[in-house]
Amino acid sequence: MQFKRTLLAMLGLAMAAVAQAQGAWPSKPITLVVPFAAGGPTDVVARTLGAAMSKSLGQTVVVENKLGAGGTVAANYVAKAAPDGYTFFIHHNGMATAPALYRKLAFDPLKDFEYVSMAVDVPMTLLARKDFPAKNLQELVAYVKANADKINLANAGLGAVSQLCGMMLENAMGVKLTAVPFQGTAPAMNALLGGQVDILCDQTTQTIPQIKAGNVKFFGVTTKNRIKALPDAPTLHEQGLKDFEVIVWHGIYAPKGTPKGVIEKMNAAVRTALKDPDVMKRMADLGAEISADKQLSPEGLQSWLKAEIDKWGPVIKAGGKFAD
Q1: FRET label pair with 205: which of 115, 126, 128, 283, CA 20 to 30 Å apart?
Q2: What is the pTM for the complete model shown?
Q3: Angle 72-79/94-101 helices, nearest 10 degrees?
Q4: How is the chain split among helix, strand and coil, in percent rounded to 5?
Q5: 98 vs 103: CA distance, rounded Å
Q6: Which domains does the chain have, with CATH numbers?
Q7: Cα(140)–Cα(283) distance, integer angstroms
Q8: 213: Cβ–Cβ under 8 A, 6 or more apart, which residues?
Q9: What's the rounded Cα separation, in Å, for the pair 256 and 244?
Q10: How far apart are the C-alpha atoms of 163 and 181, rounded to whole Å?
């Protein structure tokens, strides 16, 4: 009898929590978990959006950085958090690549989360050290194919989009290069600037200043269409690497079971933030672009994530890059 009363009490508390989340939400600060270090590209996106979202939500959006294992530590933390509408998660392509990269994954990206919205897309750029012999993409491809055993390819670590871009580049060229992983995009860029590595794929948020200053050789952007931040720069696709497309996209998630009403209000807050003039200017300065409208719905993010998992799984498996 005591067990039954305890169970009913627990159910009552759970139902009260859901009702509170759906009705008075938000009644306290909201946590937005970022899986990477403060100051990095994803963190900058999160803090910019969070500040704007706070205005429409009437509560502070607090950014919490939880680092480790290519974003999987933070993802697992949020997957197991209380679905009360006060814990959310922002992640990039790593949400889609984790199932192929990690043999043992403590969460399922397609089953353990509610989907809120896509946010912004950040293009990648293909760079080489300033004194690299090739002058354009055609010369780069020819040189790499002839000297594959002598060329290294930097990346920002296992699961980083720079690594994925490099793997796709290898597949497109039909070569295998020596991978040189770093702990983040900044050290990888510093090594390229210092001439210690040959080639790097990296986000416009990091590379535009170096490109404009002439500190690196720039071969093109990785989107299908040219981008506003570098309007005169050709894409790799238009230069001959057909269908080559890599963008750093950002999605916002909540623990599975978060009330639908909360998801709808959070989605509305994201959409409002993305129309904020300050947010739009900040994103433009970073070379980032607002995600397509069809991807701003929960269903849009879910469909995109599934497609990205299907896209990157074969690429990663072909590259043989795994972690336990």
Answers
A1: 115
A2: 0.81
A3: 100
A4: 45, 20, 35
A5: 9
A6: 2-122+249-319 (3.40.190.150), 123-221 (3.40.190.10)
A7: 30
A8: none
A9: 34
A10: 8
Sign (positive/negative) of CA torsion 148, 185, 287, 94?
positive
Name the 3-class secondary structure at 252: strand
DSSP, collapsed to helix, strand or coil, labels residue 127 as: strand
Tokens for 71, please give them. 């974003």
Element holding 11 (H helix, E strand): helix 2-23
157: left (phi over 0), alpha (psi -120 to 50) or beta: left
Residue range 236-261, pLDDT digits in tens: 999 999 999 999 999 999 999 999 99
Q: How many alpha carbons lie under 13 Å from residue 242 in its C-beta half-sphere?
A: 0
Beta strands in 27-86 (DSSP E): 30-34, 61-65
Per the DSSP assignment, residues forming a β-bridge with 64 are 33
Nearest to residue 176, comparing CAs of 286, 318, 31, 57?
318
Render pLDDT for 10-33 as a digit per residue (tens, 0 to 9).
Answer: 554 445 454 454 469 999 999 999
Tokens of 45: 């996106």
User: pLDDT-derived band of residue 158, with 50, 70 and 90 as boundaries?
Assistant: confident
CA dihedral 290, 291, 297, 302 (to 10 degrees): -150
Q: Which residues are CB-neighbours of 220 under 8 A, at least 6 positions away?
A: 125, 126, 137, 233, 234, 235, 236, 239
Tell me how far apart the alpha carbons of residues 175 and 171 are, in angstroms, rounded to a whole number. Answer: 7
Supply φ then ψ for residue 18, to 5 degrees. Answer: -65, -45
Which tokens sit at 107?
């969460």
